[in-house]
Amino acid sequence: MRAYKTKMVERIELPDREERAANLEAAGYNVFNLDADDVYVDLLTDSGTGAMSDEQWAALLRGDEAYAGSESFRELEAAVGDVMGFENVVPAHQGRGAENVLYGALVGEGDAVLNNTHFDTTRAHVANQGAEAVDCPVEGAHDPDAEGDFKGDFSVERAREHVDRVGAENVPVVVLTITNNSAAGQPVSVETTREVAAFADDIDATFVIDACRFAENAYFVREREPGYGDTSIAEIAREQLGYADALVMSGKKEGLVNAGGFVAVEDDDLFERAKQRAILYEGFPTYGGMAGRDLAAMAVGLREAVDLGRVRDRVEQVRDLGDRLRDAGIPVYWPPGGHAVYVDAGKLLPDVPTGQFPGQALVCELYREGGVRAVELGEFAFPGADRPDLVRLALPRRTYGREHVEHVVETLAAVQDRADAVAGLEVVDEPEMAELRHFSARLRPV
Ligand SMILES: *Cc1c(COP(=O)(O)O)cnc(C)c1O
Q: How far is the CA of 210 from the centre of ligand 1 (A)?
């Protein structure tokens, strides 16, 4: 049962088939180069693309734009305290700004950081400190067909092996990313969170939770982890986050805003160091690169994030998309995670060899067929990573309805029907940094 009705609308349009083909060619077969106006259903990302509530829009108007001591910052502090259980808050312009503040204060040259799976920007910020980012996912995390309720979990066993190799003194930080974005948005159990907290304590490391999708994660815990069936999302979130020493958060996810982020810490000394770094990179610590009105909207968004109706709508819509695709015979990562459904393009386009980017070819066909924009997370985005060629369909929060989901399923089914006629792609132009090529490279059909 939907927990919302519509109060404001935005016109969208599906360009006709010839226009779509021309747009694709003009974009160099890279959908990052498309104009958003030419996209009908935009599933590029769930980051900063959701709809705000009437309460959030009202909060925007009341935003306090004071440089120091803003009332909107006090509202954010109170929300982080009530919803997440942390008193010390340092705002940042978005998640990666928060990562720069926190990891810059905690990590040094030659260190190692352990994480269930580093998200791209996290990995980059660890590397930027001269440290090594080590992933410790559980068996099956990257296998679209492996069974599991908590495929996003952290393998303490792998982590211990790494500590044995490099020495505990070189591992200052252990991170748990909930949900695990780079492992198909899979959840992490509270039990694992407790184990990771004990492990971090044992090696004297700071335990950080990357809380971007903390409420989606709590919904899975409520559904799947014994003993939590009658616990509220708010209580589960408080418990799970409470095991951490610090949080890093992108407000563009479950802050339910279009821009923003923050760090929250327990330790007063770390709080001071984070604030000093924030002044250098983000702004005075009561605004951190955000407008006062955006702080105010994020404060409201955090409280809305843990509302059961809100998060149920959210996770069930993603699951509905996954179920419908699977019923239509489309190979998808199973089970669906919290924010996106991942299609196995290597299986859907078996005639396109990996070197010709089956994932990117599928992304292009989804636009050509139905004006749907998805993103490739396979050989094109991660050259040589030896992972399945997945295409991500990320659903913005509170944005699309069932008809859009049906349109996406019909579009995929139509592409699958003519899979043997889909051409692979080759790169024409790419930037110097291979890690960033999927954002701007240009391609052409082989
Ligand atoms: C999006 C994201 C970030 C970075 O946040 P931005 O707001 O995009 O800078 C960090 N960690 C995870 C898990 C994310 O999903």
A: 8
Q: Does residue 1 fall inside a structural domain?
A: no
| Separation CA 446–CA 435 (nearest Å) | 23
One digit per residue, pLDDT tens: the chain, 446 residues?
889 999 999 999 999 999 999 999 999 999 999 999 999 999 999 999 999 999 999 999 999 999 999 999 999 999 999 999 999 999 999 999 999 999 999 999 999 999 999 999 999 999 999 999 999 999 999 999 999 999 999 999 999 999 999 999 999 999 999 999 999 999 999 999 999 999 999 999 999 999 999 999 999 999 999 999 999 999 999 999 999 999 999 999 999 999 999 999 999 999 999 999 999 999 999 999 999 999 999 999 999 999 999 999 999 999 999 999 999 999 999 999 999 999 999 999 999 999 999 999 999 999 999 999 999 999 999 888 888 999 999 999 999 999 999 999 999 999 999 999 999 999 999 888 777 788 889 999 99
What domain range includes position 430? 17-39+308-445
Tell me, yes or no, whether 59 and 31 share the same domain: no
Centre of ligand 1 to C-alpha 95, Å, is 5
Q: Of the residues 251, 274, 305, which one is the last residue of a structural domain?
A: 305
Q: Give 121 Cα–ligand 1 centroid separation in angstroms.
A: 7
Atom of ligand 1 at shortest range from CA of 48: 7
Question: How many domains does the chain divide into?
Answer: 2
Distance 44 CA to ligand 1 centre (A): 14
- Answer whether 217 contacts ligand 1 (Cβ < 6 A): no
Contacts 24+ apart (CB under 8 A), 44-48: 44/373, 44/374, 44/375, 44/394, 45/375, 45/394, 45/396, 46/253, 46/339, 46/340, 46/394, 46/395, 46/396, 46/397, 47/250, 47/252, 47/253, 47/394, 48/94, 48/252, 48/257, 48/258, 48/259
| Cβ of residue 212 lying under 6 Å from some atom of ligand 1 | yes
Ligand 1 near 262 CB (within 6 A): no
CA–centroid distance, residue 208 to ligand 1 (Å): 14
> Do 273 and 126 lie in a common domain?
yes
Candidates 44, 45, 93, 96: which one to mutate for ligand 1, based on the most atoms within 8 Å of Cβ?
96
Structure token pair of residue 30: 């890279």
